[in-house]
Amino acid sequence: MxxxxxxxxxxxxxxxxxxxxxxxxxxxxxxxFEAVMGxxxxxxxxxxxxxxIEIDFLEPIFQGDKINVETKIISFGNKSMKMLQRLIDTxxxxxxxxxxxxxxxxxxxxxxxxxxxxxxxxxxxxxEKD
Length: 130
What we know:
130 residues, alpha+beta, 24% helix, elongated
């Protein structure tokens, strides 16, 4: 998914402030969930929440760079799933940053962790096999 770099994303060094990488990954995550589910997502009904985010900043992003965010699920556990995302310069192929996110099964009605249902997992596994 292409990312639009806004002037307000830039810092005093004239590159995208590291805090905005997280927002770019959020946009990619939303787009990914909508692609997997085939429609706009009602986030109050999603059965997972983010419990851990880890970002490695490899190269600066500058205004005018053409950046895409790539997103995929790389593993499932019983109560969690691990997502891998990358910000990539489409002109050079250079990876600008890498994000690993762990999402945990979550029951909104009683505010507690839960096993991720098989039908939820299967949507992602089916999407990823292509």
